[in-house]
Amino acid sequence: MSLFDSARFRLSVSQLAGLPEGDVPEIAFAGRSNAGKSTTINVLTRQGRLAFASKTPGRTQLINFFDLSEKDEHGHRQCVASLVDLPGYGFAKAAEGTRKTWSELIGGYLASRDTLTGIVVVMDARRPLMPTDEWVIDFLNTRPVKMHWLLNKCDQLNNQAKKETLYKVKARAAEIGPHVSVQLFSGMKREGVDELRETLLRWIRREELAV
Fold first, then answer.
1. Where is the EngB-type G domain (predicted)?
2. Domain that holds residue 32
């Protein structure tokens, strides 16, 4: 069984005061409200309804924590890492107050979490690096941790478009720095799941984390 299959919901928080104590590596997921972030988490963990999606951008302003566990030498399950589902940033339809709340909540999380190990940014492969994506990437880059850009819905591109998109996004990642990696992914077709798992396991095991 993969470590990610052990994922269990821990809690949701709507304000910084509610953040739990952090003592294991945390991997955060960010993405536009229609990019497939919840599907990505569900596919990664092989649990169909672990993460829930709201069809209304900006409605769910919660940070959700999911614990990953392994058995210790005594056979007891022990939390070894957490997946952190950040609120979607559907800013096209969100009020300015929603943007402000997102910035304060996520900015506070980024600034305060010493256990934050890396961030997965889920983008629609058909429309990557939209203005809101760029805004959030700049926002997230204030904290020098690993970033993995996941180009979801790649099954809706032909092979040539996949190559061109991957080349374009990798070039943009290179401009930001070596701490950013990129891959194609399809939550619907389960493409790229093993590559994503391997990347995140390296983060959890503290491999290649220097930025």
1. 23-206
2. 3-204
Predicted local confidence at residue 19, as pLDDT: 93
Query: What CATH number did the domain enclosing 42 receive?
Result: 3.40.50.300
Tokens representing 160 are 């040539």
Contact 11, 20 (CB under 8 A): yes
Tell me the average pLDDT of the chain. 89
Nearest to 68 by CA among 209, 208, 205: 205
Q: Which residues contact 145 (CB under 8 A, 6 or more apart)?
A: 116, 117, 118, 119, 179, 211
In a domain, 25, yes or no: yes
124 inside domain: yes
- Using pLDDT thresholds of 50, 70 and 90, give the confidence band for residue 76: confident
Specify if 209 maps to a domain: no
C-alpha 80/C-alpha 76 separation (Å) is 12
* 20 torsion bin: left (phi>0), alpha (psi -120 to 50), beta (else): beta
Query: Domains in the chain: how many in total?
Result: 1
Q: pLDDT tens digit string along 147-188?
A: 999 999 999 999 999 999 999 999 999 999 999 999 999 999
Q: Is residue 48 part of a domain?
A: yes
